[in-house]
Amino acid sequence: MKAHFHREGLLSAVQVAGVAVASKDVKPILKNLKAIAEGDRCTIMATDLELGIRLEVRGVTVEETGDAIMPAARTLAILRESTDEELLLQANTERCLVQGQFNEFEMPSEDPANFPDVPTFAEEKYHELKAENLREMIRRTIFAAAIENPRYAVTGILWELEGNSARLVATDGRRLAVDQGPAEGHGGHDTKGQTPVVPTKAMSLLERNLADPKETVRVSLRPNEVLFKTDRAMIYSRLVEGRYPAYREVFPKKATTKIPLSAGPFQSAIRQAAIMTDEESKKVTFTFSKKKLILQASGTQTGRSKVEMSLDYDGKAIEIRFDPRYLTDMLRILDPGTSLTLELVDGNSPALFRVGDYSYVVMPLT
Predict the structure, then answer these.
(1) pLDDT in tens, 93-120
(2) First and final CA of the chain: distance in angstroms?
(3) For 2-114, which CATH superfamily applies?
């Protein structure tokens, strides 16, 4: 193959596709990217056999159609450090040459036929979502997914698709984030009787490809895998094995106390109080009473803090303790002017924060 690229455009594509490059020694060829040049476009492919992507590069002039294998790490380094704005990429089964006006880099290559295929999107059953809605739903849930895989937690996001609705759910066993948004079903596509969990890595890669808020994203969930189709990309991922926890059982059943809050001031007060927490006692005590909230924290080595903020609340006094990180993680993804409601049963039961169709449940500390 032989094609001319704008360096910045190719760099952006390689950075995004690089998320799917194998980090473990599965197969040596998976440390590479595959480029497919045809017509007036070039597609960059990457996969680790669990996650894969086809990403279209814009602004390409193709002189000779064909495929090429490019070492991912070195190609990324070349594109970052090169001082040329226009680059020529030409390759065969033995070598890959990246050439500009001032720089030239030659790397060994391989036979593109040995690179595993990444599926294309040809599904008749799928849901469509607006990119701006889906990106917001991902942002509001992904931070609550487990980093590791302890008991009662899953390292991924649950998808529930039915009719004209989509719901994303994430939990690490100590908190739960649920967001719902509009979606359009096609061909009878739904997840009834299933608990499809998409790995966090795949969700992060999808979010990075939602740059145009107005574009439409297609989602097709199969028994063991999922396909996402955007204007420029096709992302494939295996699903997380195992059943998802019965998350609806975590929601408080009889919340007797409802407290209106404003995201910005509430986050500021928590961050101030949290200054005096330490490694042994990562908790802040929240005392809600008429017209005010008092936040207190203390540590054996750090000292103590007491922060007071006004509330539009006239109910009974209630005291509850939280790890402040679990609250600030949620509040930072909301606009500071966002109004939310805190629903409480007592100081020992899960606390529920609501913002429209978004729900966030946090377990209190003892």
Answers:
(1) 999 999 999 999 999 999 999 999 999 9
(2) 64
(3) DNA Polymerase III, subunit A, domain 2 (3.10.150.10)
